[in-house]
Fold this sequence. Notes:
- The protein is α+β, with helices and mostly antiparallel strands.
- The chain has two domains: 16-55 and 167-273, no CATH class; 63-160, 2-Layer Sandwich (Alpha-Beta Plaits).
- The protein is built from ten helices and four strands.
- A four-stranded antiparallel sheet has the order 2-3-1-4.
- Helix 1 (19-60) runs antiparallel to helix 8, helix 1 runs antiparallel to helix 10 (251-273) and helix 8 (162-204) packs parallel to helix 10.
- The two termini are 24 Å apart.
Amino acid sequence: MRQNISGDGTGGARTWRSPAFMTGGHRAAFLISLCLALPLCAAAFMEKQSAQLESLLRDDFRLFLIVDDKAPLSAMNGLEDAVRALPYVAEARFVSKKQALEELKLGDADLIKSITVAAENPMPEYFSVKVADPALENIGGWLDANVLQGKMPAIAGVSYKPEQVYAILHASFYRRFLRLVFCAAAFVLAMAALAVEIAAVRGAGFSLPSVQVWGWLLSGAGGAAAGALLCWLLVSPVKHLSPMWWSLPLAQWRFAAPALGALCGWILFRWKETL
Length: 275
């Protein structure tokens, strides 16, 4: 004969109201929040590194507009002002032959020995140009529209590092993608909380949560905090590799992990009330 067990926890039954179920539910809230917080905190850490890497690469990137030595004087007049007036030019600096040779001496002392064998300075004059983000994201089109194809006859050629442009665009993509992951995770948790709340109201009507909810909230927040701490312990050994790899996410991101964990505990609490 099957025994009819009531929901008040009598007879040692393991029902959702029993203390045994409550303790197991708190453990589940802790572990689920920990497993969610660990990858999210790791993603937040990588998002911060991607943003810093992108910023360093953008600040370092320069276009070199090489001046044609054989250009007529009429084409040279007002050239510097014309370069500065180009759209999305944030900074433009003219470098003479002497300055270019001095900068090369600072950068490569061995190479300068072979260059200075000749009596004449072989370094060209050029403009070191820093462009804003819209131009950087389509550098080829920007050059075709403003510098090349006869737009500036006094410019003999253009030099830059295309691999650096690719690295900047990739870092920007990773940063934006990881932020999209955070938004998606928050949206999923919010929709789950709304769904269980609707189910709980339909099942038992609207009522204020009992005191037991605090145990679930604290378990979820504690699990998320443990996940954030574990992530910090995993990334802390790399702090000696480079200063840029030791920039933790902003404070609001770190406080978001326990908040999301508490929300996870709330979802589990309301979900078990619908059983």
